[in-house]
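Async update (no meeting this week)

Hi team, since we skipped the sync, here's where things stand on the single-chain job. The sequence we agreed to prioritize is pasted below, unchanged from the tracker. I ran it this morning and attached the output directly underneath so nobody has to dig for it. Comments welcome in thread, and please keep replies under the output.
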Amino acid sequence: MDNQVPLHIAFIMDGNGRWAKKRGLSRNIGHKKGGDTFREIAKYAKDCGVKYVTFFAFSTENWKRPKEEVDALMKLFSEYLDEAESYAKEKTRLIFLGDKSIFAREMAAKMTELEKKSKQFSDFTLSLAVNYGGKDDILQAARRAAKFCRDRDLTPSDIDEKFFSGLLYTSAVPDVDLLIRPGGERRLSNFLLWQSAYAELYFTDILWPDFTKKDLDTAIEYYKGRNRRFGNIEK
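Output:
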């Protein structure tokens, strides 16, 4: 029985649009409320002793949404980047998972700058997955591995699990212990596929903007009650 707080919790922030629709509001307001929840839960996870948190903010598939909604999401993300300087005071390391090249040059440069400025912090790491997809993550790592074999003195047999993990966007963080998805869906939606191979999965019907500190407590208690064997027999 694992009675420890999970080292790494990942969140799929689902249900912002439905939260807004239930209240007769625009989806953009739902995303804004979801952003407020993100800030509160990230801080509370740190207070609970969690060392790594990862939030699924914008997927490679989300570009297919209506332009108005995508623009609103990018505006919210830009505002978050502007305020993220304050995380340095809290000794929080920031990592942005995904392909930055698709973003405006100024925004991509800001992400890179924040990562560099916070790299020395080790107490708490906050990763935000933006323009991220699990399949894309594995594919880009496979391409990098192939390049290593072509350009360096490596053979395919040299590429073990540890080496390959180091080529993923998440190379600086451990695998996921607990993956939480509010919003009522029961799927990973192309999020951290490799990194969640042995994660405990916690699904709830609560929409993300309504997700509270108490709900995180409940999810952590669920995790503590799990017997994580990683393929071994029960002792």
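Quick observations from my side:
The mean pLDDT is 93.
The longest helix spans residues 27-47.
Reply here if anything looks off.
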